[in-house]
Amino acid sequence: MATTADFKMGMCIEMQGDLLMIVDFQRFQTGRGGSNVRTKLRSLNTGKTIEHTFTGGEKIDIATVERRPHQYLYNDENGFVFMNTNTFDQVSLGKDMVENADLMKEGEQVYVLYHADKEISLNVELPQFVELEVTYTEPGLAVDTAKNTLKPATLETGAEIKVPLFINAGEKIRVDTRTRSYYERVK
User: Fold this and answer.
1) Could you tell me the CA-to-CA distances from 117 to 14, 24, 124 in Å, in that order?
2) What percent of the chain has pLDDT over 90?
3) pLDDT value at residue 147
4) How many domains does the chain fold into?
């Protein structure tokens, strides 16, 4: 068993029958009392983010989670179909297990999180950045370049994000999948 001193970003713990990933944590001490750890935890079962404060030295159960490389093949009425790039096994996962699925295109390399002890697929992690083509956006005006203004754009996967005014239809851009925001233009 581990304690709160072993916390790391991305660590998975089991608490109250749920599997939770540590998104953020901060140690703090109040007055003369012991230290505490304030955390943001994301449930791998439901996808909800919760905040929880642990007392210093509290015992926790660490869950063994493996990240296995997969390739996104297609989607159907049951969800999304992925192929393990090592074993070539295919797995179908529900739409609720893929966050920002509209930023994923066929052939995309992703990671599927598995609970190692139970061999249950938990979640799908997209790469931090994906390159997508802008299929539609309004043309920007040259007089508006002094401002940091954004305009809506539709990407090849059907996702809609905000892009700078100088981006035109037909250009490839890099999108941050964690924030669903424009990152840079691809040359």
Assistant:
1) 12, 25, 18
2) 49
3) 66
4) 3
Do 86 and 36 belong to one domain?
A: no
- Predicted local distance difference test score (pLDDT) of residue 91: 92
* CATH code of the domain covering residue 142: 2.40.50.140
| Residue span of the structural domain in which 112 resides | 65-125
pLDDT, residue 154, reads 96
Is the pLDDT confidence value at 141 over 80?
no
Starting at the edge strand that comes first in sequence, how are the strands of the sheet with 2-3 ordered?
2-3, 59-62, 12-15, 18-29, 35-43, 49-55
